[in-house]
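Methods, example record. To illustrate the input and output format used throughout this study, we show the complete record for DoxX family protein. The sequence lines were provided to the predictor; the line carrying structure tokens was produced by it.
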Amino acid sequence: MIDTRLAPYAALGLRIALGLMFIAHAYLKIAIFTPAGFAGFLGQVGLPSFLAWPIILAELIGGLAILVGFYGRYVSLLLLPILLGALFVHAPNGWVFNAPNGGWEYPAFLALTALAHGLLGDGALALKSARLPALGTPAAA
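The corresponding predicted structure is encoded as:
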């Protein structure tokens, strides 16, 4: 059973953690790996290097939107392909994060966290929340 009194604050905690994680990963790609280095990494794993900046900007802008609750649940769902792409890239490395080139458990956890946020909603103190249509009913026009 869901505690409806505290659920909005649980969603807020989830939203803050997920938003900060996306911002931190964008910063990591800008300041530590550098965009050129990240583009090179993408090329090494068989992905187009031109995706570097779109991924960085999606993580940065998306993380900010999630953090403040500006249609955050939609943003989490829209960022799922990036997390699933990271999962695909890290899957051959094994389970744990300290495996060479990082393991797959962290991207898998973040993908499930983003999905949970998308399903749960933005929670308390959101700037602009969005509601998903009820299952089995047409969306309002």
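Annotations derived from this record:
Residues 8-120 form one domain.
The chain has one domain: 8-120.
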